[in-house]
């Protein structure tokens, strides 16, 4: 799931998640951050999505 957050509108949220640059991608498992990517690095984002997808069990 991808969510878009307006860091200006939700400044408290941005601060609580330590968002200092955009885009910032968080990878969560069981509500906890397991990885983070800052910046628009498409190859790195694709790699992290594959890794996280392999770690999280799939629903059948």
From TrEMBL:
It holds the Pfam family Thioredoxin. Residues 2-49 form the Thioredoxin domain. This is Thioredoxin H9 isoform B. It comes from Glycine soja.
């Amino acid at each position: 799931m991808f969510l878009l957050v307006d860091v200006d509108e939700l400044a408290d949220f941005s601060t609580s998640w330590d968002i200092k640059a955009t885009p910032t991608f968080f990878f969560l498992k069981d509500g906890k951050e397991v990885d983070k990517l800052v910046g628009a690095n498409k190859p790195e984002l694709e790699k992290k999505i594959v890794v996280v997808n392999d770690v999280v069990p799939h629903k059948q």
